[in-house]
Amino acid sequence: MVRLISQLSPQEEAMFRNMVRRMNTLVATAKDLNVRLMVDAEQTYFQPAISRITLEMMNKYNTEKAIVFNTYQCYLKEAFNEVSTDLEQAKRQNFYFGAKLVRGAYIDQERERAAELKYPDPINPTYDATSESYHKTLTECLRRIKALKDAGEPNKIAIMVASHNEDTIRFAIDKMKEIGVHPQDKVICFGQLYGMCDFITFPLGQAGYSAYKYIPYGPVNEVLPYLSRRATENKSVLKKLQKEKKLLRTELWRRIIKGQLFYKPVGNYTPA
Description:
Layout: H1 10-33, E1 37-39, H2 47-61, E2 68-73, H3 79-93, E3 97-102, H4 107-117, H5 127-150, E4 157-162, H6 166-179, E5 188-193, H7 198-206, E6 210-214, H8 220-233, H9 235-238, H10 241-258
Parallel strand pairs: 1-2, 2-3, 3-4, 4-5, 5-6
């Protein structure tokens, strides 16, 4: 990695090099095991460094497929521009681009810091504006996927739609159909938190889409704040708990009536 900052102390320099070494170990192992490694996003005052390192890892390891994914928080006003810029970098440097699209989880921290230091609020003003940003960014990724397909070139873009929002999931599926991207292409995948919105994840899997559940793992004092941020990020989802409970009761009753307590739905999903 090219050194851009010369203001680090010797101790900080050693810590930085050790961090890059660890990242290389993680990504190399992921590549050997043929699994994806998705680097999470943090606050805007950390994110440039995280994105820089992640793109360096993409350039080094995403030579045959998208192993490393960067996370883009669409509640940021600059989300679309950041994704577009990174897509261009991947195109110029000829590596596979991987992106996980999320809404974002640090609204209060970002706005408090912006107010304290008197710089413009980096967050979209409303939830609807964030949804618009998410859909616009996803559309741009799909537009580029279609352009590659129309040109007869191999697709070098992979996207995870990490969302619990039903409208966003429908939007993604409709756009996939519109440009002719099929579930079995494994170009777009979907992800929800384990235990949340199963009524979204399961039908996606049954329909053949790549659908994942992610599970926070680590010390309790680190995992609980993470889950708290997810709750803040998904306030509208928490309102759907009654809907999910109703769906579960309906399905349990259906299985009792049909004598299918151990019913296993059959879909057309085939592993990648």
